[in-house]
Amino acid sequence: MKKFAGLRRVVVENGAERYGHCRRILENTRGIPVEPGEERSLKGNSKDMDMEKGVLRLLAYPGELLKPCPGTNGYICCGYQILNTGTNCPMDCSYCVLQAYVNQPSLRVYVNVEERLQEIGRIIDGQPQKVFRIGTGEFADSLALDSALEWSRVLVPFIQNHGNAVLEFKTKAARGEGLLGIEARDRVVVSWSLNSPIIASKEEHGAPTIQKRLEAARRCQDEGFAVGFHFDPLIEHPGWKDSYRRTVELIDKYVSPNRILWVSLGCLRFMPSLKPIIRKRHPGSGVLRGEFILAMDGKMRYFKPVRVEMYRFMRDCLMDWNSDCGLYLCMESDEVWEASLGWSPKDTEGLAAYLDQRAKKVFHLALDS
After folding, report:
1. What secondary structure does DSSP assign to 280-304, as a single string?
2. Residue 367 banded pLDDT, cuts 50, 70, 90
3. Is the C-alpha dihedral spanning 349, 354, 355, 357 positive or negative?
């Protein structure tokens, strides 16, 4: 069980055992202690919480599984659809918003998603003229435990039956055997969360190096997958320009500019409640050393000139590598778009249309009218 060395036990909540996906996960993690459990929330002050990253908790989710990204007023959203397969991540990045957002412990996996895919399919098929850009990496890493959880095996065949849907696996993981073992490649993009090598080594605890992530991206490209990258969060730190330039140089070394679906940029932002949690859980972290203001969305953000400078720098580096990489900003204002990238989609509908066109171009989508 070396590949699951961080897992100490598996908790099966009441009713989960009747799902085939649950039984397969238990088979894949054989040798790790299993116990029954009940739903519970974190108690006390969240900054003192144990997130139980060594506990895999299997349960059925009763709520809505496919939801649009909520976005926030005043900032341009990408119009993404979030497929909720679970929450939490085995890695422990100091800046992770889930530390403040999630109030349930452990690595939670919704084992009833497979049985509910038909209802999601009906939603997709009900709007054949719409591109559904669907991702699983908002509340959990899409592939970090894929050899146990089998999300690639569950979701890739499903997406092949819905010609107006694109599925994104967003990850920091460097392993992808399960994904590479599936024959289907159409309308699947594998995207890596990237940062500077300094931030990766000091702040992204338990995550593979930037080089290993890019080696994994190259393997996926070689196997025919489209790939993407997300520089989010960009973090100001001493020597940040040289360090982020180094990451783009590594991209150039390992990855072909062909079949890049998109690259996003987003500066560090967080709810004020995350600040004491970072200080408690990651006392050696340097991510809070920048100057932040409380923005109109209620989040702490770098001053606008700092964000614009970082975006401009990254734009120049990335455009030198690939002038057609589908570059966009995540949750930024029209003003910042214009100042940093030199153009703006103006609003959420405009950005969604831009990214839909990227999907149509890369995957040759022909939608029903």
Report:
1. HH-TT--TT-S-EEE-TTS-EEE-H
2. confident
3. positive
Work out the angle between the directed axes of helices 117-125 and 151-160 (0-180°, nearest 10). 30
Angle at 230 between CA 88 and CA 86, to 5 degrees: 20
Those residues with Cβ within 8 angstroms of residue 89's Cβ, 6 or more apart along the chain or in another chain = 53, 96, 98, 107, 140, 141, 144
pLDDT digits (tens, 9 = 90+) for 60-88: 999 999 999 988 878 999 999 999 999 99
Helix or strand holding residue 157 (H, E): helix 151-160
Domain boundaries, the chain: 60-363
**Separation between Cα atoms, residue 61 and residue 114, nearest integer Å:** 11
Give dist(CA 350, CA 337) in Å, integer: 12
pLDDT at 101: 80
**Element housing 247 (H / E):** helix 240-254
pLDDT value of residue 102: 74
Position 21, amino acid = H
- Whether the Cβ atoms of residue 214 and residue 250 lie closer than 8 Å to each other: yes
Q: How confident is the model at residue 45 (pLDDT cuts 50, 70, 90)?
A: very low
Instruction: Please answer whether residues 21 and 59 qualify as being in contact, where contact means their C-beta atoms are separated by less than 8 angstroms.
Output: no
User: How many Å apart are CA 80 and CA 282, to the nearest integer?
Assistant: 31
CATH topology of domain 60-363: pyruvate-formate lyase- activating enzyme (3.80.30)
Least Cα distance to 100 among 273, 225, 224 occurs for 273
**Cα Rg of the chain (Å, integer):** 20
Q: Report the C-alpha gap between 219 and 173 in whole angstroms.
A: 13
Rounded to whole angstroms, the Cα distance separating 268 from 17 reads 39
pLDDT in tens, 281-339: 999 999 999 999 999 999 999 999 999 999 999 999 999 999 999 999 999 999 999 99
The vertex-252 CA angle with 187 and 362, nearest 5°, equals 20
Kindly list the strands in the beta sheet with 55-59, ordered across the sheet, starting from the edge strand earlier in the chain: 34-37, 9-13, 55-59, 107-110, 86-87
| Statement: residue 13 has pLDDT above 60 | yes
